[in-house]
Amino acid sequence: MPMPNDALIMLYEEHEFEKELLSKFPDEISALPVGGIHAKIVNGKERCYHYMPSTSTGTAGKRVYLCKENAELLSALCRKRFLQKSIKSLPNSIKHREEYSKYCSSYDPISMKSQLPKSCVILCYLPLSRSHNENAAAWTWETFEKSTLYPDQLIYTSPNGIKVRSKSELFIASELELSGVPYRYGQRWPWRVDTITRILPYFAPRTIE
Fold first, then answer.
1. How far apart are CA 205 and CA 84, in angstroms?
2. Which phi and psi angles does 208 have, rounded to 5°?
3. 19, 171, 200, 202: least CB-packed within 10 angstroms?
């Protein structure tokens, strides 16, 4: 049975998108920290470690616990694991898309994400298609009056490259972007609570204009 035209267009767009991801993921991995992430259950709680493989024969690798102060490293290692798993899955998905097989084994980033350590899932964002944010991208990146508070705390990066301060903010930013909801992080609103205090939301919606 022939596929609807819009389905063929979607299939082609996803095929091109996956090829683009496969071509750029290795370069992204090369810029990430050496080693990998390892998780184990300690006293009923999941703990994450930075595993550094040994550079000499007969010597065990090094494993260092990742505490709260290592949040940026944890995020980078989580991203690296996701990319490595994606690189293994993408070629098969691309091959089947090229064959237009109804038994296509699709690239499933949600599945890749679910295989990460539980405490790292929130740190891992999913790749977005090129067309997903076309309408909101220009507005989001226009120059606006932005908060300058605590710049050293901006250690997490959203799918669209927005720097935020915490895991919870990363989760909110990722969900907004995956849903196509435009926002500006840390924009100063033109309104005031009183003559002194200005409103400073963490996520300013597009409707404020």
1. 34
2. -70, -15
3. 200
CB under 8 Å to 197, separation ≥6 — which residues?
none
Q: What is the DSSP letter of 114?
A: H
Higher pLDDT, 36 or 56: 36
CB-based burial of residue 37 (10 Å sphere; 0-12 exposed, 13-18 middle, 19+ buried)? Answer: buried
Instruction: Give dist(CA 167, CA 123) in Å, integer.
Output: 7
Ramachandran assignment for 182, one of left (phi > 0), alpha (psi -120 to 50 degrees), beta (any other): beta
Average pLDDT, the chain: 78
Given 98, 123, 148, the domain boundary residue is: 123
| Same domain membership, residue 176 and residue 85 | no
Is residue 166 domain-shared with residue 72, that is, in the same domain? no
In the numeric block, the tokens 């992080």 are attached to: 185
pLDDT in tens, 91-126: 998 888 777 655 545 566 777 778 888 877 766 766
- Does residue 84 carry a pLDDT above 90? yes
Report residue 153's pLDDT band, with 50, 70 and 90 as the boundaries.
Answer: confident
CA distance 130 to 139: 16
Kindly tell me the sign of the dihedral angle through the C-alpha atoms of 108, 111, 116, 121.
positive
What is the domain extent for residue 92? 1-123
